[in-house]
């Protein structure tokens, strides 16, 4: 019962991929944060250019504490950029700031995957905090209905991660498009920004992989229990 080989063959490899993705994004960010862009654009200025490109006039840009804490908050209509991005004129700062402004553009245009993600979010939050525990308790007590409830709840976590991918990829695509068309970065600088955003995107792919493998583990454990 307690020797869960599904965890070792499914979840641990996925977690190692996630760890690799985190290391990669931090390494790429660190490297590109040391390279200044030739136009001297700060992250805040770059984000503003993306907003102007899409004709968005009601979104504020503010600094926020921390590293890689950049995000767009649709509730307050504000882009919050971390200390290493807001006033920094590095290649990484431009790429990250434009990505967050890309999210603002998505909301302004009512990008459909965001609406789907927001609809899933409440159940996904429940599944993330309690889905696994409910399923594990059900397995321990051999209560099939409890296992099924846990699996269903956790399935929404995987679904949320899946829907998040096009949202993040699209925001990066918008960012790189504006960077290219407005000439914010030169050729090699543009490639550097793309590397930063590609590395960040891999963390979302890895998160999806972990959730899928965790879900598959629960399903296989439940099937094994039913055969006993």
Concise structural overview:
This protein is mainly alpha-helical and 228 residues long. It has helices at 5-32, 43-53, 83-86, 91-108, 112-141, 144-182, 187-227, and strands at residues 60-64, 71-73, 78-82. A hairpin with a 4-residue loop joins β2 (71-73) and β3.
Quick tags:
elongated; mainly alpha; three-stranded mixed β-sheet; 3 strands; 7 helices; single chain; 228 residues
Topology:
Layout: H1 5-32, H2 43-53, E1 60-64, E2 71-73, E3 78-82, H3 83-86, H4 91-108, H5 112-141, H6 144-182, H7 187-227
Description:
- It is a single chain.
- The protein has one domain.
- By secondary structure, it is mostly helical.
- It has a three-stranded mixed beta sheet with strand order 1-3-2.
- The model has no long low-confidence stretch (mean pLDDT 94).
- It has helices at residues 5-32, 43-53, 83-86, 91-108, 112-141, 144-182, 187-227, and strands at residues 60-64, 71-73, 78-82.
- The protein is built from seven helices and three strands.
- Helix 1 (5-32) packs antiparallel against helix 7 and helix 2 (43-53) packs across helix 6 (144-182).
- The N and C termini lie close together (11 Å).
- Helices cover 75% and strands 6% of the residues.
